Amino acid sequence: LFVLILQHWDVFKYVTEVFILVPALLGLKGNLEMTLASRLSTAANIGQMDTPKELWRMITGNMALIQVQATVVGFLASIAAVIFGWIPDGHFSIDHAVLLCASSVATAFIASLVLGMIMIGVIIGSRKMGINPDNVATPIAASLGDLITLALLSGISWGLYKELESKAYVNPLVCAFFIALLPIWVIIAKKNAATREVLYSGWEPVIIAMAISSVGGLILDRTVSDPNFAGMAVFTPVINGVGGNLVAVQASRISTYLHMSGMPGESSETAPRKCPSPCSTFFSSDVNSRSARVLFLLVVPGHLVFLYTISSMQGGHTTLTLIFIVFYMTAALLQVLILLYIADWMVHWMWGRDLDPDNFSIPYLTALGDLIGTGLLALSFHVLWLIGDRDSDVGD
To answer: Residue 113 burial by CB count (10 A; 0-12/13-18/19+): exposed, middle or buried?
Structure first.
């Protein structure tokens, strides 16, 4: 619903590339915060955060690491937004490009700082209350990440847009300030053995996920303007958010389970390299199979709550008919089914190849969730339009 409101802000009307930043930054925050939550949950569960010294070491190293990742990937996301916005329109504005850079980097940095502190508090609190952080931290990271990031992006970009005419130097100064802080975070992260490896090897998944999300942003920018797909502006974040939350919980649980049996790369009967069968993923007596069944069963009640909320707030410009709900639920169930199966294979595959799934799997899985969810939702809208379920108020 927030996205529909933002369409009418001046900065979103005159600097339309900001729309391309929305999925990229939302995906980035989800990826960074969920991988942080997964890393710290695993560390807490295997006893690496039991003493104050270990706890402080994990907190400082991981906070510095996500500040580095957020600043760099936020900068790259702004470049992608400029390119994706410039190529179709054939129009390039240096002022708008600097505005996008400053907005993206500042949003990524501040959101990382706020969300990182919240995640640390949630994980420490969960451990003290005897709750498994894997079941709590990653969903909170994903949901709060979207809300806080979108609020920061809209507020910062609006404020910088207002300064564009009278104080043009503000935008490049903001951009330069956050980039200048990078060496400090790099030094802190390098000194910590727990984050040093991720600082060097953890870039590929978040950058690839950012690129996929940027393409998703371009698709969002195009579909919102198509009357046949206007309702997707509200439903896309919902289907992608639910799918991403559920698969992140499963990936984090499987990773913690594997960490309890040894280190990545060690041969273990619990980490097969071959592709699992759907039966072993969903219908075996294994603890991870049981959690997959529970998470899959949460899809319908979770989405029904969101659909009721959207309907009661009169959002989406799409009448919630029975046939629409059937198509929507089918797309949501299929998305989560595919993601849970891929998670079972991917986490074990990465483990067998000496890659820590906590750092590598979640960005790929959430990016795939966005791609699959958006694709299935677009297909559902298109089929509904073809069979004659066309709302007269779509796009109003």
So the answer is: middle
In the chain, the N- to C-terminal Cα span, in Å, equals 14
Q: In this structure, are 79 and 99 located in the same domain?
A: yes
Express the helix, strand and coil content of the chain in percent, nearest 5 each. Answer: 80, 0, 20
What span, in angstroms and rounded, lies between the C-alpha atoms of 266 and 248? 23
Residue where one domain finishes, among candidates 181, 201, 225: 225
Q: How far apart are CA 292 and CA 249, in angstroms?
A: 10
In this structure, the answer to whether residues 220 and 131 fall within a common structural domain is yes
* Amino acid in position 321: T
Domain total of the chain: 2
Question: Tens of pLDDT along 311-346?
Answer: 776 655 556 788 888 999 999 999 999 999 999 998
10 Å Cβ neighbour count for 353? 11
Determine the pLDDT at residue 320: 75
Q: How far, in Å, CA of 198 to CA of 185, rounded?
A: 13
Alpha helices in 90-231 (DSSP H): 94-129, 133-166, 170-180, 182-191, 193-201, 203-223
Q: Name the maximum alpha-carbon separation found in the chain.
A: 66
More confident call, 325 vs 354:
325
Q: In this structure, are residues 38 and 254 in contact, taking their beta carbons and an 8 Å threshold?
A: no
Query: Which residues have a Cβ under 8 Å from the Cβ of 130 and sit 6 or more positions away?
Result: none
Structure tokens at 367: 């990016």
Listed in sequence order, the residues at least 6 apart from 30 whose beta carbon sits closer than 8 Å to its beta carbon are 141, 142, 145, 146, 244, 248, 366
* Spatial contact of 244 and 70, defined as CB atoms under 8 Å apart: no
* pTM given for the model: 0.71
Which of 176, 193, 225 is a domain's end point? 225
Mean pLDDT of 117-127: 82
